[in-house]
Q: What sequence folds into this?
C-alpha cells in the first residue's frame, strides 16, 4: 500500500495495484488494477476509464468532469457507505454502471430512494419497505413479488429490524443517474387527509441542494426531511436567514435520501437540474445568517424530541396560504411535541408567513397556536427571534388550559404539562399594541376582543377595574384589572361596551363577541 499525490490537493490511496496509468487529464485503471479513494479524499479528473476486471472503490469525493467509462460493470465501481458517511460521485454522462451502498441503522424509520435505475424491492429483502400513496393518504407495504420495481426519484420508507439484519448495508447495482431529471408522477388529490404530500428522493450518487435552480410547478417551496421521529425543512425562496424550519440548516439532501414535497395545485411537476449536484460541504463550515425579517420561532421540547412553529412577517406575503412560502404541518410521531399555528386559512401551519404590516393593521393581532402530544409529558416552550421585533412591542403567550398569560419578552421560556386528549387549540400568541415610551408612561389602556373573550391590557405596575355593558346599557360584568393582560369571557354573541379605568386613565371601547 502506498499513497500518491496527484496535482497539489488531490490524494488517492491505491491498494493491490497491478497496472495503473495516470495522466494530467485522465485516469486509467486497467488489467485488473484496483484502487481505493479513502474517506476525506478529494479526487478530480477530466476522464476516468475503468477497464474490464478492474475495480475502483470510492469512499471520498470523486469528480469526473469529462467522460466516465466503466467496462468492468457494477463490480468495477463501488460507492461505499458506512455509519459516518458515503462515497460521493460527480459525473456527467449516462451509461455508467456501479454498485452503490446505502447504510441503514436499525430500529428506526428512514426515508430512502434508489440511487440507481431499474432496481426492485428484492434489494430490501428482510427489511420493512413501504410506499406512500398520496391519493389515499396511506402507506403500502411491499413484500411480493420481489421483482416489483422501485423507481428513481421516488421516496420510500424502510425499517431494519435487529432480529433480522441489525444495522445493515444495502447494495444497489445498476445504471447511475446523471443530467437533468424530472418527476411527472406527483399527485394532488382533493379530499385526501394529506392532500398533495408526495414522497420523492435524490436519485443521484452525489448530494443535491434544494435551491431556486429547481423547476417546480404547483409545488410548495419547502423540502421536508425526516430525522428520527421529527420533520425538518428548508425553503430557499425565503430571505436568507429565514429559510430553516425545525433545525435544518441547509438545503443539502444526501444521495439515496427521501424527502417530502407538497403539491398545492393540479398537475404538479418537479425537475432537478444537474447544476444542483455537489459534494456536500462540511456542516461546521457554514456560518449562521441573521434573519432579515421580523419572525418568532416557538420550539416545544419533550421526551427528548423537539418541534417548531414559525411566524414570519414578510413584504409581499399574502394573508391566505402562500404556495411558495407557507408550510402546512406534517405531523411527527406521537411521542414528539407537535406545535403549529392555526390561521384563518383553516390549515395547520408549521410556518406561517404573514404580511410585514400584519401586526399594525390587525385588530386584534392574535395567532392561535395548536399543540398535540401523545403521552403525559412535561413540556418546555421556548421563543426565539423576539429581538427582531420593535422593543416596545409586547408579545404574550396565553395558555387557555391553565388560564395563564406569559410575557415572552421578559421570559422566553414557558413550562407546562400536556397529555393525549387535551384540546389542541390551547395557546394564543398576542402581539400587543406598538406604543412608544411616552405613551407607556401615560398609562395607556388597550381593549380588544377575540372570539368569545375580551382582553384588557394594562401598563406595567398599574391596576384598575373594568365594567362591561350590553347594547341596552345593562352591566354584564365587573372585573378587577391587573398589570399586563386580563381576559374576560362573555357567554353570548353580540356587541358590548367596555369601560376600563386605572388611577389616571380611562378607556372606552366597543367590541364584538362571536361564539
A:
Amino acid at each position: 500500500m502506498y499513497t500518491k499525490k496527484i496535482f497539489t490537493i488531490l490524494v488517492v490511496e491505491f491498494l493491490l495495484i497491478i497496472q495503473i496509468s495516470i495522466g494530467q487529464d485522465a485516469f486509467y485503471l486497467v488489467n485488473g488494477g484496483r484502487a481505493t479513494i479513502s474517506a476525506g479524499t478529494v479526487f478530480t479528473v477530466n476522464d476516468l476509464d475503468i477497464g474490464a476486471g478492474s475495480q475502483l472503490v470510492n469512499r471520498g469525493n470523486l469528480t469526473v468532469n469529462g467522460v466516465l467509462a466503466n467496462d468492468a460493470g457494477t463490480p468495477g465501481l463501488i460507492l461505499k457507505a458506512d455509519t459516518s458517511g458515503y462515497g460521493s460521485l460527480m459525473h456527467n454522462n449516462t451509461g455508467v454502471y456501479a454498485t452503490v451502498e446505502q447504510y441503514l441503522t436499525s430500529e428506526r424509520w428512514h426515508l430512502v430512494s434508489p440511487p440507481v435505475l431499474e432496481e426492485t424491492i428484492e434489494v430490501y429483502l428482510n427489511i420493512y419497505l413501504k410506499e406512500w400513496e398520496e391519493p389515499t393518504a396511506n402507506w403500502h407495504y411491499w413484500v411480493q413479488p420481489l421483482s416489483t420495481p422501485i423507481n428513481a426519484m421516488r421516496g420510500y420508507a424502510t425499517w431494519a429490524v435487529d432480529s433480522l439484519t441489525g444495522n445493515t448495508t444495502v447494495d444497489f447495482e445498476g445504471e447511475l443517474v446523471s443530467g437533468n431529471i424530472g418527476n411527472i408522477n406527483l399527485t394532488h388529490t382533493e379530499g385526501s387527509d394529506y392532500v398533495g404530500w408526495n414522497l420523492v428522493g435524490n436519485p443521484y450518487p452525489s448530494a443535491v441542494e434544494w435551491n431556486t435552480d429547481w423547476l417546480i410547478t404547483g409545488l410548495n417551496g419547502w423540502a421536508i426531511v425526516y430525522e428520527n421521529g421529527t420533520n425538518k425543512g428548508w425553503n430557499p425562496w425565503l430571505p436568507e436567514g429565514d429559510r430553516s424550519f425545525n433545525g435544518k440548516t441547509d438545503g443539502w439532501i444526501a444521495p439515496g435520501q427521501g424527502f417530502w414535497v407538497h403539491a398545492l395545485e393540479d398537475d404538479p411537476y418537479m425537475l432537478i437540474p444537474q447544476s444542483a449536484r455537489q459534494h456536500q460541504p462540511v456542516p461546521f463550515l457554514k456560518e449562521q445568517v441573521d434573519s432579515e425579517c421580523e419572525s418568532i420561532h416557538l420550539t416545544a421540547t419533550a421526551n427528548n424530541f423537539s418541534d417548531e412553529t414559525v411566524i414570519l412577517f414578510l413584504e409581499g406575503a399574502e394573508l391566505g396560504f402562500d404556495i411558495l412560502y407557507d408550510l402546512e404541518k406534517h405531523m411527527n410521531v406521537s411521542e414528539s411535541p407537535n406545535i403549529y399555528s392555526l390561521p384563518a386559512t383553516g390549515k395547520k401551519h408549521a410556518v406561517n408567513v404573514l404580511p410585514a404590516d400584519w401586526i399594525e393593521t390587525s385588530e386584534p393581532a392574535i395567532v392561535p397556536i395548536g399543540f398535540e402530544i401523545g403521552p403525559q409529558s412535561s413540556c418546555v416552550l421556548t421563543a426565539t427571534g423576539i429581538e427582531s421585533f420593535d422593543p416596545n412591542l409586547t408579545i404574550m403567550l396565553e395558555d387557555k388550559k391553565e388560564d395563564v398569560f406569559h410575557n415572552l419578552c421578559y421570559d422566553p421560556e414557558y413550562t407546562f404539562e400536556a397529555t393525549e386528549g387535551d384540546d389542541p387549540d390551547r395557546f394564543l400568541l398576542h402581539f400587543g399594541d406598538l406604543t412608544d415610551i411616552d405613551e407607556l408612561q401615560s398609562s395607556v389602556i388597550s381593549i380588544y376582543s377575540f372570539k368569545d373573550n375580551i382582553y384588557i391590557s394594562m401598563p406595567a405596575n398599574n391596576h384598575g377595574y373594568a365594567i362591561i355593558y350590553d347594547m341596552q346599557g345593562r352591566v354584564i360584568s365587573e372585573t378587577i384589572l391587573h398589570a399586563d393582560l386580563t381576559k374576560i369571557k362573555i357567554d353570548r354573541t353580540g356587541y358590548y361596551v367596555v369601560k376600563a379605568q386605572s388611577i389616571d386613565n380611562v378607556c372606552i371601547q366597543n367590541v364584538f363577541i362571536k361564539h
